């Protein structure tokens, strides 16, 4: 199957977090050489150290990434890890190819930028693969993961939050909403999930319900919703009560540690699926 050929090089366009490092380990176990385009001020040094070869780039240096991949025979790549989205207003330093692409993009929203970059790479015969290649076991499972289960009122908040999260996803605004008593406390935008949790949780005072979904037209190749121990840490700070995540469409990092932290804080963690008729399945 294309994208899984043992011995062939594979590229990573890496941001922050542990996802790139986990992918390197899995790709190497599958017999692949790994070449990383690492972003300065975002990617951890350990990612570059673990790669067969790494190239450090700044945001917007698309031409440098393409040249690096072609130099090492890379014809397949993945987008992995986080980029601090507010940096697009202060830290973009595009090369000629990056600037040309940037000027062609009508929207500065996540999906529009990433799809444009992916299209540019594929025009250079560098295919962009799903970020979950080799790592599908990290997808969020369905069901209640914690000892504590959601109450009837919290289930109503999950359903209310789900509808609102789906709506903001349709508009490519964000992936997460914070609600309480069927009122929206915060909508995630460019600031990211943790900041939205802290803002919405402070307004709710306590018992906030956090709902995080994949955007309806979101491409599995990039920017899947992700949660982990840090999500629980943010929720604990504002005494939030429930984390509901779309099962099978989101990433879950450090599962055991995350669930232990949630249990210790009395937080409910649940993976939810949406049925064809729009009802939710826990």
TrEMBL record:
Residue intervals of the LpxI N-terminal domain: 10-138
Pfam families assigned: LpxI_C, LpxI_N
UniProt domain LpxI C-terminal: residue ranges: 141-270
Stated name of the protein: DUF1009 domain-containing protein
Protein source organism: Desulfofustis glycolicus DSM 9705
């Amino acid at each position: 199957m294309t994208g899984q050929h043992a011995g062939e090089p594979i590229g990573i366009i890496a941001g922050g977090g542990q996802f790139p490092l986990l992918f390197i380990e899995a790709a190497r176990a599958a017999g692949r050489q790994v070449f990383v385009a690492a972003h300065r001020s975002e990617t951890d040094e350990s990612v570059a150290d673990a790669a067969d070869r790494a190239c450090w780039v700044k945001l917007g240096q698309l031409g440098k990434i393409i040249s690096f991949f072609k130099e090492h025979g890379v014809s397949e790549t993945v987008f992995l890890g986080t980029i601090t989205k507010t940096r697009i207003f202060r830290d973009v330093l595009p090369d000629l190819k990056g600037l040309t692409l940037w000027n062609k993009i009508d929207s500065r929203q996540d999906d529009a930028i990433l799809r444009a970059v992916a299209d540019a790479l594929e025009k250079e015969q560098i295919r962009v693969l799903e970020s979950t290649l080799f790592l599908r076991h990290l997808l969020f499972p369905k069901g209640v993961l914690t000892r504590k289960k959601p109450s009837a009122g919290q289930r109503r908040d999950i359903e209310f939050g789900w509808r609102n999260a789906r709506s903001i996803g349709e508009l490519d605004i964000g992936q997460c909403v914070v609600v309480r008593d069927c009122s929206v406390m915060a909508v995630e935008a460019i600031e990211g999930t943790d900041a939205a949790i802290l803002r919405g949780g402070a307004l709710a005072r306590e018992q906030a319900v956090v709902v995080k979904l994949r955007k309806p037209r979101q491409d599995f190749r990039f920017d899947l919703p992700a949660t982990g121990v840090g999500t629980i840490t943010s929720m604990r700070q504002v005494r939030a009560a429930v984390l509901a995540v779309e099962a099978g469409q989101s990433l879950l990092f450090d599962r055991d540690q995350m669930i232990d932290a949630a249990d210790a804080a009395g937080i409910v963690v649940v993976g939810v699926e949406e049925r064809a008729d729009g009802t939710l399945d826990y």
